[in-house]
Each structure stands twice: as structure tokens, then as C-alpha cells.
Amino acid sequence: MKILVPVKRVVDYNVKVRVKSDGSGIDLANVKMSMNPFDEVAIEEAVRLKEAGIATEVVAVSAGLANSQETLRTALALGADRAILIETDVELQPLAVAKLLKAVCEKESPQLVIPGKQAIDDDSNQTGQMLAALLGWPQATFASKLVVNADKTAAAVTREIDGGLETIEIALPAVMTTDLRLNEPRYATLPNIMKAKKKPLETTTPAALGVDVAPRLKTLKVAEPARRSGGVKVADVAELVEKLKNEAKVI
Amino acid sequence: MPILVIAEHDNAVLKPATRNAISAATQIGGDIDVLVAGSACAAVAEAAARIAGVTRVRLVDAAHYADHGAENLAALVVANAPGYSHVLAPATAAGKNFLPRVAALLDVAQISDIVAVVSTDTFVRPIYAGNALATVQSVDPVKVISVRGTAFEAAGEASPVSVEALAAGPDLGLSRLVGRELTQSARPELTAARVIVSGGRALGSSDNFHSVLEPLADALGAAVGASRAAVDAGYAPNDYQVGQTGKIVAPDLYVAVGISGAIQHLAGMKDSKVIVAINKDPEAPIFQVADYGLVGDLFDVAPALAAALR
Ligand SMILES: Cc1cc2nc3c(=O)[nH]c(=O)nc-3n(C[C@H](O)[C@H](O)[C@H](O)COP(=O)(O)OP(=O)(O)OC[C@H]3O[C@@H](n4cnc5c(N)ncnc54)[C@H](O)[C@@H]3O)c2cc1C
Ligand SMILES: Nc1ncnc2c1ncn2[C@@H]1O[C@H](COP(=O)(O)O)[C@@H](O)[C@H]1O
């Protein structure tokens, strides 16, 4: 079975972003970019399924600026077989990405699509669910365990929910979004980074896929959240209890 | 046009997050219908009918909504969406699961995790782990919105409105619940707790996590939370995780024990009223958001604090 893994290029999770002074957005100049961490988990899961002989091919897909190629090369270095870049400089929102991915799915016919549960820049947590809806496929979001059945027609997925865990069985093809506990992603080794340079990377566009990607949400302004005023250090437990009782009045 | 709020529940009890979503709907303005979809869930519909601000409750009772599978639930919401200007749900694990499906089937954007209502088409939502607040305007005919509970008061009680039964949609048969493993705890639920004691990697083991944090939580009548590192290491169940990709909390008092204060953790708790940090590293970033910081070894400080509070 073929697995499609959508990967997004985002600001690295270690970067503390700054809001532009004119309130138009986030300052991305000279900021370190990486693959969205949930997508690393997704690639890892797909590659493990291939190593286990369950998957036959892993295809990484990214939509966005030309430099998303770097993210796709990382996916290839981590074990994806080939990559597809949907190149556009339009700011893509989840619905548009889902429509692009749907078009790719119609061409590629994967049995499983594994997006991350959430991109750590827009924090939308939408794309996988939207893709599943557009395809009329089942979905298993926030996955912490995947077991594909022997004839590859269904899978059992354990999901992280409020209050604990739930296991569902979904018919394939399906969309499964990753949570952090699904696996621990490997690092790309130097030889694999070299090999990745020779793996196929095909480029297409929203127009070629026949998808209108015009944004539906207009960002009017981006602001910094209110900062907490600096607190104090207390010397010991006695002082802490006194402050909580008499100053903060929370106990 | 009226607003549709999708109730969250377990067929027996209405989840409090529904009340926060109703509050957000009240701020948008207009009549508010609440959809209760489930199985043998009439009690939930009755509870929803007594929430202030609600105009009408619409109840769909069928076996294939019992487990709130996203596919069936989204299809039902879409079938009943015509005539509504807004569709709202809590930004909980359940809301996040089905609501984007609704938006995609309606061919509209979803506005995730709103923290403020500016006007009927303009909302504020955090991005980049809460390090920025975006004000976004929707150009879509229907606004599909998930609501961050901590940003809106829970709607109170009022005299009951009518409950009207609606026809069920088909069972799409795309997925099936195999089972649930719910964390058993007598403590308050994290997102509704007034006090939270949260533990980090520094606890070192599941045994320590319990033996050090529980007496402190008991003394404070608190819920227990955790950092991702503590959850990943298996010290605490996954649904304890507070942060950008876990639960968002805003209690009156948040006590962070052996947590460094990574931006992803701060994203989930920095709107707490009072923050206490216990950490042996005076440079730990958690102290930048703490109202009261105590530099010290948690294995000494936490038991001493529990004893002092008893
Ligand atoms: C995509 C992504 C999503 C994430 N989502 C979340 C999230 O939702 N929530 C979250 O919490 N994290 C999240 N993280 C992880 C986050 O980046 C941090 O790694 C994590 O919060 C660190 O947990 P910690 O503070 O317990 O551990 P550490 O950073 O290791 O901190 C341990 C702290 O304990 C202190 N300490 C050690 N021993 C003692 C002692 N004896 N007494 C007192 N203090 C002591 C140390 O000084 C240190 O400050 C996410 C990361 C990624 C990449
Ligand atoms: N531009 C993109 N290109 C490829 N995949 C994407 C893109 N945007 C989002 N995704 C996928 O959708 C997931 C969830 O993103 P979001 O819905 O934006 O939070 C990500 O983890 C990716 O797997």
C-alpha cells in the first residue's frame, strides 16, 4: 500500500517568534525553519510501515514556497521514496491545502494519508480532518498507535482524547493525524541526506491541479499578547504560603 | 440568522466546555440553537435547555451517534446547517476532531480556537503557541468556529426552553469504536479546575510523580497536570499534558513543579491567574511568567509546601 505524508515547512519549534512592529504578521527574516514536528512523526510512522513490509511506497507532499523543497529533501532523507512540491506564493489556509492534497490523492490513490495533527505556526488542527471530509474517507485524529490489519483493508488506531485514550477501527483508505506519542522520529544521517538528493522530486502548481487556493480568512492584524508582569522570588515555603494567602488570596 | 452550537457530552452529562461555547455565541449575538446528538441522551438535552442564552435545543437520538464518531456527526451537522450563520463547538479533543469536517463539507474555512469575538465576522485567535494573536475576518457565508473555553465565561442557568427532536442521518459506517481507556481520577477535571499542580521531567519516575505531587494536590484540592516531557516519559497519562498541543488551562492557581517553562508549555497555562514555580534552576524560563518563584529542590519543597498547607 502507498502512503502519502503531507509535510509543512514551519518556524522551528525552538524559535520564539516576534510580531512585526506594523502588526502585519510574524517577522520571518533570518528565522530558522524546519519540518513541522508532527510531520516528522508522520514520516517516521510511514517509513516504519515500509520497513515492516506493510507499505510499498512513501510519498511526501508539501505545498507552499519553492523553499519547501528543503523540507521535502528532509523527508526523503528520513526515508520517503519520492516527493511532490505544490509550488505557490499564495498564503495557504487549511481548506486550500486539503483541496490540493485531495487532488494529489486522486492521482496517487494512497491507502493511507498521514498529516500531523497540527502545524505549530498556525495551530489550526484542521487539514487532515478536512482532507478526509473532502474525500469521504474515515479519519483517525491524534493517533498514538496504529495497527494495519493483515489484508490492509482496515486499521486500528488508538487516539489521544480528553480523558484518556480511545481505539477505533477505520476502513482504508483513510486519513490518520499524528500525535506526539505515536513514535520517536529518527534523525537523518549524512549518507541518507546525500542519497536524498538523488530521489525524485516533482513540482506542480495549484493551477495544474485545478484548485482555487484563495484565502477565506483575512488577517486584519497580528498583535503580541499581553505580557505577565514580572513576579517575585520567595525565600522559602513559609513566605510562599503567606503570599498565596494574604497577597494573592488564592488559598 | 441564528447560531448553532454543538453540545459536547457523554450521553449522560453535558460537558462544561459547551457552556463556554454558548457564551461566545451570546457575544456574537442572535438566537442560539444547541444541537445534542447522541444515543439515549435526553438528559443532556434537558441540561442544555436550561443554559442561559439558549433559544432552542435540537435533539438527535440514534445508536450511531453514541460514540460521537466524526464522520457521522459532521454529516449530521452539515445536513442541519442551512439557515445558520455560525456553527460553534468547544475547542476540545472532540470538537477539534469533527468540526473541520463540517467546515470542509460546507466549503468554508474554520476559525480555530477563538479567544475573542470582535464582530459577527471577525475573531481573535492565538497562533505560534500563543506568542501572537491574530485578528481574522471571514469572508465565508457560514462561520465555523471552535471556541477556547478558558477565554469565555461559562454560561449560567435559566428557565428551560423547548427541546425538539430531529431526524437522524444515515450511519456512514466508516469507523467503529473498539474501546476507551479513560483515566480514573477523583480529582477535578483539568480544564475546569480552580487549582492545578503540574509536574515535569524533574519528577523522574511515575512513582515520584504520584508520591510527590498527590499530597500537594490533595492539600490544595487541585487537579494534576504535566509537561509533555513527563507524559512522554510515562510518568503521567497523556490527557494530563498542558500546553500548545495538549490542554489549555487558566485556573486561579497553577503550581509548576520541576517544569522548565518551554514556550509550548507556557502556551497552555500562561493565562492562569496566579502562577507558582518550583525549580532548582534560578534561570529556568518558567520564572519569567511566575508570580511567585521558589528556587529549590522539589523533593524538599513540595512535601514541605503540602505539610504547610494542611
Ligand atoms: C511539537 C511540539 C509540541 C509540544 N507540545 C508541548 C505541550 O503541549 N506541553 C508541554 O509541556 N511541552 C510541549 N512540548 C515540549 C517542550 O518543548 C518541552 O520539551 C517540555 O515542555 C519540557 O518539559 P519539562 O519542563 O518537564 O522538562 P525539562 O525542560 O527537562 O525541565 C525540567 C526542569 O526541572 C528542573 N529540575 C530538575 N531537577 C529538579 C529538582 N530536583 N527540583 C526542582 N527542579 C528540578 C530543571 O531545572 C528544569 O528546569 C512540545 C514540543 C514540541 C516539539
Ligand atoms: N502547506 C502545507 N503543505 C503540506 N502539508 C501541510 C501544509 N499545511 C498543513 N499541512 C499538513 O496538515 C497538518 C495540520 O496542519 P494545520 O491544519 O494547519 O494545523 C500538518 O501537520 C501537515 O501534515
From TrEMBL, chain A:
Co-factor(s): AMP
Keyword Nucleotide-binding assigned to the entry: answer is: no
Which UniProt key words apply to this protein?
Electron transport, Transport
Q: How does it assemble?
A: Heterodimer of an alpha and a beta subunit.
Show where the Electron transfer flavoprotein alpha/beta-subunit N-terminal domain sits.
Answer: 23-213
Under the heading PROSITE patterns, the entry gives: ETF_BETA
Any Pfam family matching the protein: ETF
User: What are the GO MF terms of this UniProt record?
Assistant: electron transfer activity
- Name of the molecule in the record: Electron transfer flavoprotein subunit beta
Q: Which GO terms describe its biological process?
A: carboxylic acid catabolic process
Question: Cell inner membrane among the record's keywords?
Answer: no
Q: Which purpose does this protein serve, as stated in its record?
A: The electron transfer flavoprotein serves as a specific electron acceptor for other dehydrogenases. It transfers the electrons to the main respiratory chain via ETF-ubiquinone oxidoreductase (ETF dehydrogenase).
Q: Which organism is it from?
A: Rhodocyclus tenuis (Rhodospirillum tenue)
- Identify its protein family: Belongs to the ETF beta-subunit/FixA family.
Automatic annotation (TrEMBL), chain B:
In Swiss-Prot or TrEMBL terms, this protein is called Electron transfer flavoprotein subunit alpha
Looking up InterPro entries in the UniProt record yields:
DHS-like_NAD/FAD-binding_dom, ETF_a/b_N, ETF_a/FixB, ETF_alpha_N, ETF_asu_C, ETF_asu_C_CS, Rossmann-like_a/b/a_fold
The cofactor required is:
FAD
Cofactor note text: Binds 1 FAD per dimer.
Organism field: Rhodocyclus tenuis (Rhodospirillum tenue)
Can the keyword Flavoprotein be found in this entry's annotation? yes
- State the Gene Ontology terms under molecular function: electron transfer activity; flavin adenine dinucleotide binding
Any idea which UniProt keywords this protein has? Electron transport, FAD, Flavoprotein, Transport
Q: Does the keyword Membrane apply?
A: no
Question: Which Pfam families does this entry report, sorted A to Z?
Answer: ETF, ETF_alpha
